[in-house]
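New to this. Look over this protein:
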Amino acid sequence: MPGLARPRRCHVVCTEIPPGVVGGLGRYAERLFPALRDRDVPIEVFGAVGRDAPARTERTGGVTLHRLRTAGQSGPPQGAVGALVRIAGLVAFNVRVAARILRARSGAVVAVHDWMGCLAGILCRLLGRVPVVFHVHTCEHNTAPGARRTLVTAGITALENAQARLADLIVVPGAGMRDELVARGWPRDRLRVVPHGFEDPELVRLAGLSVDDRDRIRAEVRARYLPGGAGRLVVFAGRLSPHKGAHTLVKAAPELLRGRDDLRIVLIGSGDDAETARLIEREGVGRHVVAGYRFLAAPEVFAHFLAADVCAFPSTYEPFGLVAVEAMALGRPVVVGPGYSPEVAGDGAVRCRTGSPGELAAALARCLDDPEHAAGLARRGAAHVRARYSWTRTAEATLAAYAEVAR
């Protein structure tokens, strides 16, 4: 678009890239890079793939994606040896990428995403005096409630702090994370808030369907969990880890089930599967809580959101929370945890103030029992998301941030 500030060229270091999408960083990459394709800025993305994946380069529009084979990237690390292999692979990946960027000497801005790309950013800044933008998507390894302090997390924190000191600019997805990092001693004047978008092609397709077609999809999903498709459905999607709130939802189930025998709670995701299974058994809610212990493809997740009477994302730590934004965009009532920044959900979701099962159960119960309240929440949520978030705006704001530091 004419008149907007643009960097001349960008190198992007983002370890998780499509099609190997398993977490929030991959979802971000999957949506942002297409939004950057036609912005008249050459962008080279360097991503890490497992040894069993093809190492290839592909170009679409102005974005060139380099997939570099990297040890330890084929799945979750298995034990101490697997963790060491993964770390060694990431170090080698960062050194290779930094060497390629420094050899290019193209006057580009380097953008690194989370701690996995910090070493490349630090090398480019120190050895080539290249301007660096540091994207921080999460600090859950040392900030999320219950996060364990280990030598590895201490090393990650030191790496992040070093990159923050050297970066020309730091980009975060929400005001809550900005304030968290300022409290950690990072420079407020170099922090920029750039929210994510919400549009996924399948989500946009579902949102645009007729009422009859949406009802048909809802009925198909609900029939999998509710006898005869009749009853009420609560859906959670995310990692099964304490700070994502899945355990809080299971603990809230006994109270929520009182007088609601037709209720089913569906947990979509994986993580601490064994502890989640033990908790379901201990709470005695196995007949009503369905956990598949696996991640689903985005279209399936969206279909579940559409089928839900209410979606629950009770995170105690959540820098942005794309799943809640997506559920709101589909016009579903949403309840989020205290980890969500207030501005992310606005008045379009119920935000619990604590991480207590009792408060969560009460918020979900009101959505289930008060159709007028639930419908109003759904309308406000959809309006809030569509007025505030889009990947087009995210792409423009991202390039504007890069242009600030371009030399």
